[in-house]
Specification:
With about 190 residues, the protein is mainly alpha-helical. The chain folds into 2 domains: about 5-130, no CATH class; about 140-190. The protein has 9 helices and 2 strands. Helix 1 (about 5-20) packs across helix 8, helix 1 packs across helix 9 (about 130-185) and helix 7 (about 100-105) crosses helix 8. The longest helix is centred in the last third of the chain and has 53 residues, at about 130-185.
Length: about 190
């Protein structure tokens, strides 16, 4: 079974988030420290479950042991609107002792079970070697995202240029109006 585009897309963001947390500006390994800080922010992060689940999953990084890989592989092949219920797959997942309270808190949320399914899938995918086809598909998704980023930046640059041009035109108009007023007051026109 191959991984669905839905999970590959989420995985790309999740992987980037872990990479961002992994080292500081000097290249030091700070992943453990930063994960600890994120875990302390769980109450705040829970507000992001629906809109950015892949950004919240980091609090559960390395919290799972998967005892039924076939169940997880099947989960990864599914799309967003076809996910199994948490109860149907949780028997094949062991949760680390340090994460159990967090998982309990998450499961109390209205979307907690859905989120746990996503979290387990992303964490499983993070530790699973990708197939050649999955790597190619992931690269394609990342290329598309880079193209979108470039387009957004070009639109921003165009808007900034237009704003700058408008500002210059307004400044020239104000200067011209000031020169006209000075002439009306009897002064020579400033060239």
């Amino acid at each position: 079974m191959s991984t669905s585009p839905y999970f590959l897309d989420l995985y790309a963001v999740y992987q980037s988030e872990i990479d961002d947390l992994a080292s500081d500006s000097e290249g030091n390994d700070v992943l453990r420290k930063r994960l600890g800080e994120k875990r302390k922010e769980l109450d705040f992060l829970l507000k992001m479950i629906e809109i950015s689940p892949e950004m919240v999953v980091v609090v559960l990084h390395q919290a799972f042991r998967f005892t039924q890989p076939a169940v997880m592989d099947h989960l990864l092949s599914r799309d967003a609107d076809d996910l199994p219920h948490w109860d149907s797959m949780s028997d094949g997942i062991e949760i680390a002792a340090w994460a159990r309270d967090m998982v309990h808190t998450i499961l109390q949320e209205p979307l907690g079970e859905w989120f746990m399914t996503i979290a387990c899938a992303l964490e499983y995918l993070y530790h699973k070697p990708l197939t050649t086809a999955e790597r190619a598909q992931l690269a394609s998704l990342q290329d598309e995202e880079e193209d979108l980023d470039e387009a957004r930046n070009e639109r921003h640059d165009d808007n900034h240029t237009e704003d700058h041009d408008e500002d210059e035109a307004e400044a020239r108009a104000r200067e011209e109006a000031g020169n006209d007023w000075m002439v009306e007051q009897g002064f020579d026109r400033k060239e």
